[in-house]
Specification:
The structure holds 2 protein chains of 2 kinds. Chain A is mostly helical. Chain A has a single domain, classed as ABC transporter involved in vitamin B12 uptake, BtuC. Chain A contains 13 helices and 2 strands, in the order H-H-H-H-E-H-E-H-H-H-H-H-H-H-H. Chain B is globular and about 70 Å long. In chain B, 48% of the residues are buried. The chains are: A mainly alpha, B alpha/beta.
Chain lengths: 310, 507
């Protein structure tokens, strides 16, 4: 075992990159859940975003176009979920699980001809001046634009929920949809918008894996990242900055286990790779106890079907 | 009619299978306090929802200050100057007072200014409120203040109040009325929905009475007696429950220092509750909703377990026994929530009868249910308690509230309980069904059973209980004979005015 092989700076910098996909997906899912909708299809939307983004980026030879397509693909799949659950009043848990399976299958079909191709590279943006700061510079300010965008989105969502009237209405819908309806707010429309936003961010997260992290297309390449994102939302008790913290924590565990493997730590590889998922299961079990839900600040109407009556 | 603020003519709204409003017409003048009177299901709520833009009428016209008035959404209604306080609060527990107020306003000012205005207006009308408190932590009376302040901040011309006093103590009702009279003196018209006749006689200038979706009378409530109003509302002469006076027997149920935590996060813990219930008596337990009623029922039925000696039945410790063991010993309970707690909504009446009757009616043997016997038990309940349903194979959900309530209460009474605990036995039930249920409870007591009746309907408790006690924040007052109590004393037992004060600004 040779722990000195792990360079703390490289490790720290790679945490931000490793965390970005789950950060984006978790942030989107958090907005959806704050509106009172439980969409378990994050994994499906991520992988759909990953394949859409990859195809368009290769065809158009532009990663930026790819990300736009990924957002559209994720949102499109999410709207399917929204149509089922908000208009046809289907069960949210079952629809979400179905969405994951549908997304995995659809992406495999779409991506058949793209296996083994390399994606066009996305340049790094070195933030002027800040990137030159010793230690902090390389860790924080020498990344691709999506990393910065993801952090900016966290701040944006936080400000939106906290300060804007639209954010207040979104929270109100997630808290008590009957009361929001009685006050004249369009519960279903607001939820559809939140669902589409969540899908778009999940798509971006997926495309970040296929365009930046890997960067090529393989079937099922999101490998459970969507489930981790779901767990992070709960872990973060539905608060944006805690989503950031949670994502970096989970991302950190992932990077660390890779580094530990590389350093030849004397623990079987399988156990190390299990780590992020074990933590995920643990968090989800704690959260699913219904008494824990209210205590942790879950939106009161989360997962409940809304039907306007009278 | 030219001076009318709001005039409604020929308003009709039909839902599948029922005409909720059938050519309804009435008018409200500026500054008038107008009562809408009717039983549950008479169409009052549908009518005000149309005025507030939540429901669109099928036909008919509304006129607002001589202009046609067709609100498509509550936003339109609020812009015209209509505000509404809902029966079931339209509040968000996880948001604070200021956020809740902002959600009900068309153009709320920034949060800082809004908090100031909330303090101003709430002080002016004697309804103190702290803008930054979470609504989930407020009492029912305080929550209603939030609703009222939300309306007042918009300077409404017409304030609709849907059953506003059902959650208030008598003292809080008096303060609310003073606020409403002040508003009316300032020129705000009030449309007041209730089925509490004395309140309407005390407060309102005019009344429109609805029965089965139609206007059956318009009158000045101050010129009619409560009995006349009731008979207009029900359409028949009311039967008043009666009972033979009897000496109470020995102590059957002995609650001694009962303390339990609530199972729900916004519930109320019971604190050192003590009560002795004698054979043949009805003990009424009043209190504002959310002061431990649900927890008391759960602790007595066995859903919440407590210290073994905290509850004794015939001297036997049962505090730690579950519901089935208690049923076996003769302690039965009928909870408040009909669909989902007292009955399983999608199961048939036979199945629902078997669910609680299994033990005392011996409906099961060697692990198998005797469905024939269960069906006969359900049929007996339906026949004895006049439950209107095609048959015991119908789902509980298909029954109307009153019929299902008769079924749920009847199911327990037919099992010959020695102690029966009921919570809100006539909530949301029409007057004749309510009278039948109260009579059944009194008859059961006359046969020697002990009854604990938890209710928020003070008139009901006055009518049927021998002794009265009140729950306030999980504590039970010392029970007193009902006939000795005045309504003021009852109000004080329920916790008085909970910090409200009379409006102290001159109009």
């Amino acid at each position: 075992m040779d722990l000195s092989a792990i360079d703390p700076l490289v490790l720290a910098a790679s945490i931000m990159v490793a965390s970005t996909p789950i950060l984006l997906a978790a942030l989107g899912e958090m907005v959806v859940e704050r509106a009172g909708v439980l969409n378990l299809g994050v994994e499906g939307m991520m992988i759909t975003g990953a394949v859409c983004g990859f195809i368009i980026a290769v065809q158009g030879e532009s990663p930026a176009l790819g990300f736009l397509a990924a957002a559209a693909g994720g949102a499109g799949l999410a709207l399917l979920f929204g149509f089922l659950t908000q208009y046809l009043l289907a069960n949210q848990v079952a629809s979400g699980l179905a969405l994951t399976m549908f997304g995995l299958g659809l992406s495999a079909l779409l991506g058949q001809d793209y296996i083994g191709i390399k994606a066009p590279a996305m340049g790094e943006v070195h933030v002027p001046l800040l990137a030159e700061i010793p230690v902090l510079g390389p860790v924080l300010f020498r990344h691709d634009p999506m990393v910065y965008l993801s952090v900016a989105l966290v701040a944006g969502v936080w400000a939106f929920l906290r300060y804007s009237r639209a954010g207040l209405i979104l929270r109100a819908v997630g808290e008590n949809h009957d009361a929001a309806h009685a006050l004249g707010y369009k519960v279903v429309r607001i939820r559809m918008a939140a669902i589409a936003f969540g899908g778009a961010l999940a798509g971006l997260g997926g495309a970040y894996i296929s365009l930046v992290r890997v960067p090529q297309w393989t079937e099922g390449m999101t490998a459970g990242a969507g489930w981790i994102a779901l767990a992070i939302v709960v872990f973060a008790s539905w608060r944006p900055w805690r989503v950031l913290l949670g994502a970096y924590l989970f991302g950190g565990v992932t990077v660390l286990q890779l580094n530990l493997q590389a350093a030849g730590v004397d623990i079987p590889v399988v156990y190390l790779s299990m780590l992020p998922y074990l933590v995920t299961i643990f968090v989800l079990v704690v959260m699913s106890a219904s008494s824990g839900r209210a205590a942790l600040g879950a939106p009161a109407a989360l997962g409940r079907v809304f039907h306007a009556s009278g | 009619m030219s001076e009318m603020l709001l005039a409604v003519e020929g308003l009709t709204k039909a839902y599948p299978g029922v005409v909720a409003n059938d050519h309804v017409g009435f008018g409200v003048a500026p500054g008038e306090v107008h009562a809408l009177l009717g039983e549950n299901g008479a169409g009052k709520s549908t009518l005000v929802k149309m005025i507030y833009g939540l429901v669109r009428p099928d036909s008919g016209t509304m006129t607002w200050r001589s202009e046609p008035y067709k609100p498509a959404t509550p936003h339109d209604a609020r812009k015209s100057g209509v505000a509404m306080v809902f029966q079931h609060f339209s509040l968000f527990e996880a948001l604070n007072v200021a956020e809740n107020v902002a959600l009900g306003m068309e153009d709320p000012p920034p949060m800082g200014q809004l908090a100031e205005r909330i303090r101003d207006v709430s002080g002016k009308y004697g309804l103190p409120l702290e803008p930054h408190r979470l609504v989930g932590d407020l009492s029912a009376g305080e929550r209603q203040r939030v609703e009222i302040i939300r309306c007042l901040l918009q300077d409404p011309k017409l304030l609709i109040m849907d059953e506003p006093t059902s959650v208030l103590t008598p003292q809080e009702v008096e303060i609310l009325f003073q606020t409403l009279r002040r508003l009316s003196a300032e020129g705000t018209a009030i449309l007041y929905i209730s089925h509490k006749l004395e309140e309407i006689r005390a407060l309102c200038d005019a009344a429109t009475i609805l029965r089965q979706g139609k206007v059956v009378a318009s009158c000045d409530p101050r010129e009619r007696s409560a009995r006349e109003l009731a008979e207009l509302m029900v359409g028949q002469t009311l039967h008043r429950p009666s009972r033979a006076a009897a000496e109470p027997g020995e102590v059957v149920l002995d609650i001694d220092g009962l303390s339990v935590e609530s199972s729900s996060p916004f519930g109320t813990a019971l604190k050192n509750v003590s009560l002795k219930v004698h054979a043949g008596e009805v003990v009424g337990i009043g209190g504002v909703a959310g002061n431990g009623q649900d927890e008391l029922l759960a602790a007595l039925s066995g859903e919440l377990s407590s210290h073994p000696t905290a509850i004794r039945l015939h001297g036997r410790d049962i505090g730690d026994q579950g519901p089935n063991r208690r049923r076996e010993l003769g302690l039965l309970a009928a909870p408040e929530e009909r669909l989902g707690h007292a009955a399983a909504p999608d199961m048939s009446l036979t199945e629902n009868a078997a669910l609680t009757g299994m033990i005392r009616e011996r409906l099961a043997g060697r692990g198998f249910i005797n469905w024939g016997k269960a069906r006969r038990f359900a049929e007996a309940i339906i026949a004895d308690f006049d439950v209107r349903t095609p048959g015991p194979e119908n789902a509980a959900r298909s029954l109307s509230g009153g019929n299902l309530q008769k079924f749920v209460i009847g199911r327990e009474i037919l099992q010959r309980p020695e102690v029966l605990v009921v919570n809100q036995p006539t909530w949301g039930v029409d007057a004749s069904a309510a009278a039948a249920i109260r009579q059944a409870l009194l008859d059961l007591a006359a046969r020697g059973a002990a009854i604990v009746c938890i209710s928020q309907d003070l008139d009901e408790l006055m009518e049927i209980s021998d002794r009265f006690a009140a729950l306030n924040e999980g504590r039970l007052s010392v029970p007193r004979p009902t006939h000795e109590l005045s309504i003021e004393e009852i109000g004080l037992m329920m916790g008085g005015a909970h910090g409200m004060e009379v409006a102290h600004v001159e109009a």
